[in-house]
Fold:
Amino acid sequence: MRAVNLISHSIPFLRLHDTVSRALQLMADFHITHLPVVEEDKYLGLVEENELLDIADDSRQLGALELPSNKAAILEDEHFLSVLRLWKKLRLSVIPVVKPDLEEYTGAEEAGGVIILYMEPRNFSLSEIGRLVESNDATVIHVVTQKDHASGQLIVSVKVNRNDIQDILATFQRYEYNIEAYFGDNLSEDDLRSNYDHLMNYLNI
Structure:
């Protein structure tokens, strides 16, 4: 699975003519602390809530400020382990995804945990997966499915809006779901690599 497969199209982006107040309002509306700035489809960088709150005049346009200072981004063809590493390093609430060599903005990857389930295709129920996640006060951001042609099993990647996913994992286990790998908070680099390598036994990438 690559970064482009994890893009959340609901995350907005800012332009240089947007004001500080609009940026802060969008962050509040979407419960995030970072937003990408894009001009003519070119990614310019991330603005952060804390630096915007320090600006006295919130009617000023972003283009009139020395923003954005954070250029963090991930290439759309990188594996999602790279997304997780960048999030772990910088603790961003969103991670912009750009096209190679062009810095063309593709979309934003929202921070959160990823759970990989392995099941018979006939047992796949999106509504049940959503219900189990929501029973832990979390939300499914999106779901990606892929068939393991060797076994006929279905690989279901569930992205949720929380990084701490221990209670969600426990719920899936209680309902006897086969959890092949997971990526969330409190994982060391070795844990990330171990889960990733385990997942690669099933995915053809």
Remarks:
- The longest strand covers residues 140-147.
- The chain is about 30% helix and 25% strand.
